[in-house]
Design a protein that fits this description.
7-stranded mixed beta sheet; single chain; TIM Barrel; 24% strand
């Protein structure tokens, strides 16, 4: 029986290497071989995931990146300066609930300020989303459904029962070229009714017209799709492109969500219909009317150069923009650091979020941002000042 020291940063815990810990025979053989050469080996966590539910419980997995050196067998008991062959190997281990808890203690406090429920284009109900967040170790969460606040009351109640700090939010899109300019409204105090709801209701009405045009384009290509079928698939107040994507995937027209948007639904694709998008000024006004903070979401989707971003940010700040989602899961750590520097340089705060939707985007995991790193508690600071 060996003990494997698993570390994250300067913290760690011991996992006994035995089949009951979730190692398969091949992984056990690997670890046994490693321990023979390097007793007390330390292995670094490069990924931790609890975004899978089985029978109502979160199932944890840990991906370990093993870096070690092997000396030739004939040199095994010789001097320390014998030649070493560097080896890098990855294994994925299923964790017991106790080990999951230890992992979460090591990872520290995680937050997530950009998630979606089935009130718009997410897979989980607000209740199930919060339950999964709690199981994953998320201590503060913002629900930011597209153009609707219908899930906020349910999510708020569930968060309170789980001891999770809840940040009410929305996500909407404003008029911009060449890419997409999405705005998050975060930490509103005036919802679900009021000026912001009136603003979002008008957007939802225009979305219905757009959906009808998209269905017509698809039916002209002999795809047997109907708006009624999509509304049933959506199950919530908002039917959007993600629901079109699910229908196309289910019927064999696309492999997955990224493939669907690249070939069929994205800008310039055969079934893309540009939607009416309100101006930045009127959207900022609506968010502020609900006593919320306006945050530029996933800034990479603007599709503009770093130079143009640096030019626009002070202008948008003057118009009323409050912050930037520098730490979006779609950015690299380097890009996130660059966005944060730009934001702080012009007086904007930074946030971060996974943009979690469900199993359709497995790369977006609750509580994790750029580079698969946990989103830190410091991102909550702008909302402590309200």
């Amino acid at each position: 029986m060996h003990n494997l020291a698993i570390t994250y940063g300067h913290c760690g815990f011991i996992v006994p290497v035995a089949s009951k810990c979730g190692f398969d025979s091949e992984e056990l053989a690997l670890l046994d071989r490693l321990m023979y050469f390097r007793p007390g080996l330390q292995v670094f966590i490069c990924e931790f995931d609890t975004t899978i539910l089985e029978n109502g419980y979160a199932v944890g997995f840990i991906a370990l990146e093993v870096n070690y050196g092997i000396r030739p067998i004939k040199d095994r008991f010789r001097q320390e300066d014998a030649p070493v062959t560097p080896v890098r190997q990855s294994i994925r281990i299923r964790l017991s609930p106790c080990q999951q808890f230890l992992c979460l203690c090591i990872l520290g406090v995680m937050v997530d300020l950009h998630t979606h429920s089935d009130a718009s284009d997410g897979e989980l109900s607000p209740n199930k989303l919060l339950s999964l967040a709690a199981a994953a170790g998320v201590t503060a969460l913002a629900l930011t459904d597209h153009d609707t606040m219908t899930g906020l009351m349910e999510a708020e109640g569930k968060a309170a029962s789980l001891g999770i700090r809840f940040i009410p939010g929305i996500e909407t899109e404003v008029d911009f070229e060449p890419g997409e300019f999405h705005l998050l409204g975060l930490n509103m105090s005036k919802y679900p009714d009021g000026p912001l709801e009136d603003f979002l209701k008008e957007i939802r009405m225009r979305r219905i017209t757009r959906n009808e045009e998209m269905v017509l384009l698809m039916r002209n290509d002999n795809l047997e799709i109907s708006l009624e079928e999509l509304d049933i698939l959506a199950g919530g107040e908002v039917t959007g492109r993600m629901h079109f994507a699910r229908w196309l995937i289910d019927h064999g027209y696309a492999r997955n969500v990224p493939d669907c948007f690249t070939r069929l639904l994205g800008p310039g694709c055969p079934y893309n219909v540009p939607k009416h998008r309100p101006s930045l000024e009127e959207t900022l006004k609506a968010i502020h009317a609900a006593d919320g903070k306006a945050v530029l979401a996933h800034p990479l989707s603007l599709w503009i150069s770093w130079g143009r971003i640096a030019k626009y940010l002070p202008e948008w700040k003057e118009m009323g923009l409050d912050g930037i989602e520098a730490h979006h899961s779609g950015a690299t750590p380097g890009e996130a650091a660059r966005f944060e520097k730009l934001a702080l340089g012009c007086g904007l705060f930074v946030t971060g979020g996974s943009d979690f939707h469900g199993t359709g985007r497995p790369d977006r995991r609750l509580g994790f941002g750029p580079g698969g790193k946990a989103l830190p508690e410091r991102l909550l600071k702008p909302f402590d000042e309200k």
